Amino acid sequence: MDEGDGEPQDFIRICTEKLSTEEVSQLVVSPSCGAVSIFVGTTRNNFEGKKVVHLEYDAYVPMAEAEIKKILADIRKRWPSVKHMAVYHRLGLVPTTEASVVIAISSPHRDDSLDAVKFCINTLKATVPIWKKEVYEEEGSTWKENKECFWKKQ
């Protein structure tokens, strides 16, 4: 029974503010769903023996939002039971331990939301024009290319 649950909703936000996992997860809560699956990508303090101070993200926001919409539409085709979805990505400086991306998806049962979250982050990293620069304590910085990027495979 769907008591006032409403139509499925998608929430996309690309911003420079600190991300709240609680805020994003609450967007997808639904009385008809027993599962809310969440992925939180955070800045780690190391990469290949180098101490990472922070990450810096940049994006072509209109294209990034359009690509995320395509991912969410694809999820709805693959997992029709998915109810609400939220993808928030932070731009600018992201210190270690803070979230750069939060994805939350609800569904009646856990398998669909878990599978959809994994598909979402993997596809986002491969197709969405968001760029990351790692800033190191001693050795400057490096713009990073996701190994999943479709243009890298060509």
From TrEMBL:
Enzyme class: transferase
One Gene Ontology term, aspect cellular component: molybdopterin synthase complex
Alphabetical list of CDD domains matching this protein: MoaE
Subcellular location: Cytoplasm, Cytosol
Membrane spanning residue stretches: none
Primary location class: cytoplasm
Residues bound to substrate: H109, R110, K125, K132, K133, E134
Gene Ontology MF term list: molybdopterin synthase activity
Pathway: Cofactor biosynthesis; molybdopterin biosynthesis
SUPFAM superfamilies attached to this UniProt entry: Molybdopterin synthase subunit MoaE
Key words, A-Z: Cytoplasm, Molybdenum cofactor biosynthesis, Transferase
One of the GO biological process terms: Mo-molybdopterin cofactor biosynthetic process
Reactions listed under catalytic activity: 2 [molybdopterin-synthase sulfur-carrier protein]-C-terminal-Gly-aminoethanethioate + cyclic pyranopterin phosphate + H2O = molybdopterin + 2 [molybdopterin-synthase sulfur-carrier protein]-C-terminal Gly-Gly + 2 H(+)
Enzyme Commission number(s) from the entry: 2.8.1.12
Pfam entry (one): MoaE
Record InterPro entries: MoaE_sf, MOCS2B_euk, Mopterin_biosynth_MoaE
Additional observations: This protein is produced by a bicistronic gene which also produces the large subunit (MOCS2A).
Family as reported in the entry's similarity comment: Belongs to the MoaE family. MOCS2B subfamily.
Described function: Catalytic subunit of the molybdopterin synthase complex, a complex that catalyzes the conversion of precursor Z into molybdopterin. Acts by mediating the incorporation of 2 sulfur atoms from thiocarboxylated MOCS2A into precursor Z to generate a dithiolene group.
Subunit structure: Heterotetramer; composed of 2 small (MOCS2A) and 2 large (MOCS2B) subunits.
Protein name: Molybdopterin synthase catalytic subunit
Organism: Engystomops pustulosus (Tungara frog)
